[in-house]
Structure formats: C-alpha cells, structure tokens
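Anyone opening a protein record will find just a pair of labelled lines. A complete record is shown below as an example.
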Amino acid sequence: MKSVSQFTFHPTTLSVILSCLAIIAVVGLAIRACRLTKHAHQNRAWFWSLEALRVFIVVLAVALLNQPEWIEQSQPSQKPTILVLRDNSRSMRTTDVDTADGLVSRSQALDTLISSKALQVDVDSYSIIQSTLSAEKPSSTPDSGNRNLNGVNAEEDGNEFHRHAEGINTDFSTPIETAIKDYPTLRAIVLASDGDWNSGKPPAETASQLRARGIPLFAVPVGSLDRLPDIELVSAEVPTFGIVGKVLRIPVTIESSLPRVAKAQLIFESVGNSSDESTGSVREQKEIQIKAMGRTVETISWTPKVAGDFTLTVSVPALPEEKILDNNSQVASIAIRTEKLKVLVVDSIPRWEYRYLRNALSRDPGVDVSCLLFHPGLSKVGGGNRDYIPSFPETQEELSKYDVVFLGDVGVESGQLTSENAKLLKGLVEQQASGLVFLPGSSGRQSSLVDSPLGELIPVINDTTQPTGWGSRTPSRMELTEQGRRSLLTRLAESPDENLAVWEKLPGFHWYAPVVRAKAGADVLAVHQEAATASGRVPLLITQTRGAGKVLYMATDGAWRWRKGVEDQYHYRFWGQVVRWMAYQRNMAKGETMRLFFSPEQPRVRQTVFATANVQANNGEPLMNGQVSLRIESPSGQMEQIRMINDGGDWGAYSGSFTPLESGPHKLTLQCDETQASLETSLLVLGGSAERVGKPARPEVLEEMASLSGGRLVLPEEIATISSLLTNLPTQSLEIRRFAIWSSPWSVATLIGMATMFWIGRKMLGLL
C-alpha cells in the first residue's frame, strides 16, 4: 500500500481568538514574573524554566483546542478485483435457450456467453476471479493470482471456469459475502444465472451490502420465462418394509405442466435383490389420467409373495411433447419380512367386541396375539387356551415385546390394572413406539384411567357425569370426516368413492362412549352421524401421536357387527390395518438388542430427520446412559456421525437429528459402545423441490439485485457491453485514516503530567 501522511489543524474563528488571547496573556505573565524576581530570587534559572514550562503548557492546550489531526492517505498497491460468478445449480440443466443451433441448456448457453471475447477485460488493470455458485460455503484467501472462491486455482489465463459438482441449491449471498471479506480490492461482480434463488439470505439484502461498499453487480440472465412441457413423477411413497401376503398401497404423485389432460400408463416393477430365483420380478401397469397444469395422486397396490429385499420402480412413459425425460420414474428399496407382530388384548369380560377382535387377530398370519381377561367376580383371570396369559406383564422386559396393546372395558381398580401397569403402558407407547388402542365398554371402567398415568394418552375428553356412555335401541352409524376419507387406516375399498360407499353401508352400533370432544392435536377420522355436543358432532374414531408411539380411540363397541352379511371382509381388514399402522414405525429397523425408527420416513433434501433408538443391555434390560451413536453415509460417500442423547427415562430410549444434503439412499448405522452391537438400515431422501429442471427462469430477481447494487441487468444479446462497463468503472477513492490528536487520551495525559511537574517545581522553589 502506498501512503501519504500530513499533519493538519481544524480551527474555528472562536478557537483562534481564544488561542491568541491565551498565548498573549501567558507570555505577558511570564515576562512580568521574570522581571519582578530578577534580583530577588537566588534560583533565577530554575524560576525562568518554570515560567517557560507554563508558557509551553498553555501553547499545547491552545494547540489541542484547534483540533490537530494526523492524516494518512493510502492507495492500494493491488489491482482492483472483478468477480465473475456462474450458476451451477440443477435448474441450469433446463433446455430452454433458443440458439441458431436449436434449443440448448442454460448451462451450455452460459458456456458460450462467458467464454466469449465480450467478457474480456484488460488483465493489466484488473484481477479477474472466476467461480461458480455452490451449495457449500466457499473458502479462500486473497492471492496475487486468480483464485476460485472454493479455494481452487482457476485456469492460468483467467478465462475458463473450474468445474464444480452441481449445486443442490442456488445461494447468492454466501459466495458474495465471502468475496467481500476475502478480497478487499473487490470492484465489481458479474453474476450469470437463471435467477432461481432458493437458499441463503434474500438477494435484496445482499445487493444492499454491495451498494454500501460501492461494488456494482452486473447480472446476466439466462433461461425462458415459460415452463417446459413436462410430466414429472414427484414421489412414490414406498414404505421401509412390508409383510409377506399383505397388500402394500403406494401413493404416487405426478405433476404436469401440459395444457391438456393426458392419458398415460403408470408402470410398477419389483425386482428381487437376492440371487434366489423364487423372489422373481413383477411388472404391472395401470391406465391413468393426468390432470392438466396440476398434480395427480394415484395408488399402486402390490402384494409381495416372498420375503427378501426388493427394488421397486414406478414410472410413467414419456409423452411425445415432453421436453424433460429424466424425471418420469422413481426407484426405491424395500424389505419384505415374514415376522409376526406381537399384540396384547386386555379386557374385563368376554363381550362380543372382544370375542370378534380376538378371532380376527388370531387368524391373521402376521399377528401373534396374547389375551388377558380379568373376569370381575371370579378368582381366576386369563382364559382357556394358549393365547391367554395368566397376568399383566409386570416388567419392562415382558411388556416391551408387544407392538400393540388393546385396552377394553378395564380400569385402574382392584382386581384389574394397577397404577404401575398404567405407568408401564405409558412408557411403552412414548418411549418404545408401541401402539395403544382404547376400546371402552358400557361398564364405564375406562373412566378410572383418566386419573392414572394413562390419562395423558387418552385423546378425548369424556363426560364425567355419564361414565357408562349412551345406548339406544335403533342403530347409529359412523360418518368419515374429510381427514378420515384420506386416511389409509379407514380404507376398506380401493377407490375413494367405493370406500365412502362401504362406510355408509356398514351395520350400525347401539352404544357409544360419553365423548364430549377430541383433545387438541388429535385427528378425528369418524364422527357420529347424528349425535352432537356443544363442541360439534361426537367423535367416534380418533388417533393421536404420543411421544414415539400412536394412540387410537374407538368410541363404540359395534365394530364386530361389520361381519354381517360379508363375514370377515371389512372387520378383519380394518383391525389388520390398525395393528400394522400402529406397529409400523416401531419395526422400521430392529435387531436383537436395538430398534431404530425415524421421522419423516422419506424426507426431502435439507429436511430435518428425527431419529429414535431403543437399546437393550446384553442381559435384556434397557440400557441407561450408554454411548450410542448414529452414522449417516450419503450416496456420494460423505460421512456424518451424531451422538444419540438419552432422554432421561428408564426405557433405554435415545434420540438425535440430522439434516441430509443429498438425495438418494442413505446408509444408517446405529452403534452402541457398551454392547458392541450395531444395526444397519437405509433411508431414502427425496430430491429437494427447490432445484428442479424445467422451472421458468426468474430474471426479475437478478434485475432487482443489479438495480439495488448500483449495477444493471445485461441481457445476453448485450453481452458485448460488459467489457466497457467494467473498464469504465470509476477508480476507487483513497483509503483515509485519521488520528485525532486533540481527543487522544495520550494528549490529555501529557497535559496533566506537565501541569503536575509545574506544580512540583513551584513547590520546591517555595512559591506556593
């Protein structure tokens, strides 16, 4: 840095007058004092020295009164820097730029624009830094040569871009702020992009920072304002696992930008990943209609025949007018198991609802049911066959093996559940992700659960004045709510219209629980067709998430009547769906001493995933205060490890969270230091919706940034003007540093020190 220094004053008329008067007065006073003591004082030299010091002190004070400053003017020795930023996000793959050679992608169009001679600037006058926008935070240090913002040297001639991996989003603020910090001589920025900003600080805020520093931004937009004709298979919600012989229903979402309704084939393929030929492959197709300029939701049903790992592919063949052909399919992996779900059914007496429920679960090949009847008035509990257990599980180890527990017309009272049993059930749901189904009865025993630890899990508010509920001779019916019509839990037929018709024709019930309303946060799937309270129609089928598990409340005892005329068609299907819905999350991934489940099941890029693990010690007891970690391996091989935190309870539950930055299958490995056990599973991360091929360009974003920063928007056909715009930039002003001597504490300290010396001298000469 070349610098020029100078010393200057900033007097005012008043300060000059006061200065002159003060100097005249002190000099006159000194002369008079010296004359009076010319022959009288024996130490005349010392006396005259003190008077000279007095004059110097006043002169110094007068000088400070006129505000002296030391000014340094510096001129940078380095050349001004021009940063050229190119968008490398996924949206730049959109082929919508019309050229003489036909349509090319936005990225290809930028290759032609940026590499043209129109962008060349006199390298003797400017230092050119060329880089690409990136999802990762750039890191660099100022250098005499050209350097990429991500710390990678650019080409020697400064005209070619270093190629980066494609960005997963478009962030304007991070690379610009990094350049401002790392390049003090930054003079201007050239930004070439489609303007599809979706990450980082707002562009207007970044542009305002540039304007405050006098750094103009010249924006080069690329891309069409119209969306390309396309059909995109947005998602296929494949679950983590399925059960042999049980129907899997996979919702598929398709988005169309076509101006017409399109007929297409929805193709489903399953291929076994093992070498066993018995796994085989399945190919099915379904004719669908895709809505114009909107979203279409369809459902694929698949019944796996054998266990194993499968790769599922859902696709829609490309239509002739489509311009984007790489987004018409989704691929996912799924594990098909033969394991049985452990279910516990507890009731007081063998009422009809209990009998038919027990039969439905006992005949389900995927369910292992245990039953317990308390038999009020009888000395012996249990039942008469192998399905029955002699007493309620007393320990965590005994209870934790159950995936779902049904509580019938039982309560916390003598001869039935104890307060400790209720506490264990609460922990099973909240910490072990098990399901709990409340099936109240006409005896009203469940009213005693309100004041027990299970009270918090009951998703409804009951009428305490009518604990036994309401009965009638004429049957009443359930009516699905809007949420109930969309729920897979209440789907008793394949199409929504058929399902609604089935529910309208189901046999009615003659009794319902005294429900006033559902609690906040609960989902009401069905209500009473006629009966209502002050809060609205009486909710009869309610679900709610509690901790890691789920709760369902069935406020009638007439589901067993659904077999009338149709046998097990609807009754078995409904309770089978309930059991699997409630036990699904708990069984996402499990080993001998570990379980791992996460939410959401299929997150999107940059969506936080919450993971929960249950860990047992080698002796089968819940592991407390263990060292449990979760390692996440992304599709590109990037590794991340998080420590799972114990929630402080006594069920061996650990939780943690992470945010995936890539789409595709992620490998999760749960590890425990104490038991040396590990558990592996996979997590499918869907592509982030922020960066999508085919979306219209947004030049208005670039225009706003350019205008706010003091630059301008340069259209592709005006690219030749950039060279002159950059060359004609005004030179940067000198950097000026001011040192205010008059307000410096050192100046005040000097005055005080000299005044002290003057006072001491006069004291020593006996003048005080």
